[in-house]
Amino acid sequence: MMCAVQELGLDLVNYPGQIEHGIMILDKELEKRLGEDIVDVLELKDEIIDFEITPNRPDCLSIEGLGRETAVTLNQKFKNPHKGLLEQDVEDKDEIEGLKVEIKDPDLCYRYIARMVKNIKIGPSPKWMVRRLNACGIRSINNIVDITNYVMLEMGQPMHAFDINSIEGKHIIVRRAEDGERITTLDEEERVLDSNMLVIADEKKPVAIAGVMGGLNSEIEKDTEAIVFESAVFYGGSVRKTAKKVGLRTEASSRFEKGLSPENALKAVNRAIELVQILKIGDIVPGKIDVYPKKQKEYRIPLNVEKINSLIGVEVSKGEMIDILEKLEIKEENDIAVSPYFRMDLQQEADIAEEILRFYGYDKLQSTLTKTDTTVGIRTKKQKIEDELKYVLVNSGLSEIYTYGFMNEKDLEKSCVPYSEEIIKIKNPLSEDYTIMRPTTIPSMLTMIANNYAKKNKNVGLFDISRTYKNVDGRIQKGEVAQEDTILTIGMYGEKVNFYVLKGIIENILETAGIVRYQINAEEENQSYHPGRTANIYIGNDIIVTFGQIHPKVVENYGMTGEKYLAEVNISKIVKYAKNNKKYTPIPKFPAVERDIAIIVDEDVLVGQIEAVIAKQAKKILENIVLFDVYHDHKLGENKKSVAYALTFRDVNKTLTDEEINPVMEKVIKELEKSFNAELRS
Fold first, then answer.
1. Which of 327, 308, 342 is nearest to 73 (CA)?
2. Which residues, 6 or more positions from 87, have their beta carbon under 8 angstroms from its beta carbon?
């Protein structure tokens, strides 16, 4: 069928003369092959192997490095076609036709080599080079730029080419950028620099961001006549931070940031010069400028056979070790292993042991028990309690969710949480939606409830165990860490969900944690909750739980209607007071005595206060107390209510009689009258 260039997955750069959106027109010679597969006709068929390289092996980010590994793996000898380039004798010069190089910051630039080519003929690259670049995901630009990319893929050394006429004063200066200095990179985007970034500059301006991308002002153009090949090695940490700050990660920066060998730079630039000669696209200017302030360190590591065998857990002979090391180009000199220039990751005995084991074979390792003392890993008290609470919550019909530890200040305003100085602002937020560390989990849970509400879920019960972060007493300014509290947050709504359903879940949580003595008081100041339908649970002065109905205004802020319920359980404090106090008692031998009591009290008297008085007066013989009725009627009096309880009494040693129960009941009634001005309701 007739197709356009793009429909075949091709590029106009590689097929000049074709119309961008028109049908691809074949050369007359290719017309003779009508009916054949277009892949064969255009020589597009290729085998591509995709490797995943670990960060400690930047030497394998090249065809040469992969060739070394493949040769050893297949027990073959690695034949480096460019070995002679490393030793190629090129005269060192301070200047080349007026060009000078100066490194002002040798801590960020380890080596800088420059070679010049004149009478350049800019044009398309040959098909063999274009095909190989395309197979590696790099688009062909022109023959000079393609040579730098080709060398990078072949040898792992990123390179750059400058138009010599764009270098003011023919003076290349490697320096830190000035704060606020600007450069427009090859992608036509302006980048703002700072003094922590390294640039390649001339006497007036930066012409490249070192290790990341060249500047548009030094780009190779069609009329470029003379170029400078740059082959340099920069400090990886600086390149990584610079690329992140300017928002530009390139093939070059991804290699530099892992750490490259300065010794490879010379070989790479010589290979680029060789390609210029092969393609016959320019005249080589004799000599090179090589600024190399500090030579690459050579790592000499003791080759102790016994120590290495103890590390890898198998017995490998010295001969086998040396054979493996020699294949990896690691020299052995008098029981010393000398790391090759391209293996900067080999610095100690453990590294040598790993290399030996890799090629000796992991499959030859035998499974054995450790010979050292071991400790049994156990869960902490906090972990055990969290697991138990999750079990209770899931059995209560709730679903666990996970939420982010970041939020926006607007989320606090939306959920009516007041802003405070304890809030931690993030210096480099991922986005505008995540500018602070959350001081509360309320907005996170409300967002999840609102999402479910928007999706028409009628009955929702969610819980989340996560952390809050606060800068209490200026901890962070003092160099300390923030206060972190683990909070269990529950969010619920539905036809059968109300305050008492949530209260029942909270009581199950406390019972599971072994907390039986606590106080419940009304909460009216928390603006996120309904002032008349919210409570705090205290142990001493510590608030361990806040639960109740979400304030109608907050519900409206999140685009919802109806009653929504929320609970915040401070797991950190629950752990503090939790007790493993489960006791097993025999089935009672003696019967229980049940009595009901109904009293009229003021509307603002809490049932928890009443229960506390009853329990205090009845003491040990009170087995259980159950609230079974709260009654409101104008006949009871203004702002009055009737509260009724079922009391269960039992003595484990005998059968209780009325003569023993009646005085206790009278004592309870008398104390209720005294404490709450209660009236016994007949």
1. 327
2. none
Give the pLDDT confidence of 315-372 residue by residue, as tens digits. Answer: 889 999 999 898 888 999 988 999 999 998 899 999 999 999 988 888 888 887 777 6
The conformation of residue 25, written as its DSSP 8-state character, comes to: P
Q: Return d(Cα 81, Cα 176) in angstroms, integer.
A: 37
How many CB atoms are closer than 10 A to CB 299? 18
Q: Where are the domains of the chain?
A: 1-45, 86-291, 300-360, 381-577, 593-680
646, 594 Cβ separation under 8 angstroms: yes
| Homologous superfamily of domain range 86-291 | Phenylalanyl-trna Synthetase, Chain B, domain 3 (3.50.40.10)
Measured distance CA(533)–CA(548) in Å, rounded: 6
How many whole angstroms separate alpha carbon 682 and alpha carbon 431?
Answer: 66
Question: What are the Cα distances from residue 432, in Å, to 278, 411, 416, 570?
Answer: 53, 12, 20, 29
**Nearest to residue 234, comparing CAs of 288, 274, 165, 291?**
291
| Domain 300-360 top-level CATH class | alpha beta
Q: Tell me the pairing of strands 109-118 and 289-291.
A: antiparallel
Q: What are the tokens at 612?
A: 């506390």
pTM of the model: 0.59
Strand partners, 593: 649
pLDDT value of residue 448: 95
CATH class of 381-577: alpha beta
pLDDT per residue over 235-264, tens digit each?
999 999 999 999 988 999 999 999 999 999
Asked if 260 and 217 touch (Cβ cutoff 8 Å), the reply is no
| Amino acid (one-letter) located at 97 | E
How many angstroms separate the CA atoms of 303 and 285, rounded? 45
d(CA 621, CA 615): 9
* Helical segments of 328-440, H only: 349-360, 381-395, 409-414
Q: Tell whether domain 593-680 is in CATH 3.30.420.40.
A: no
CA trace torsion 198, 202, 207, 212 (10° rounding): -30
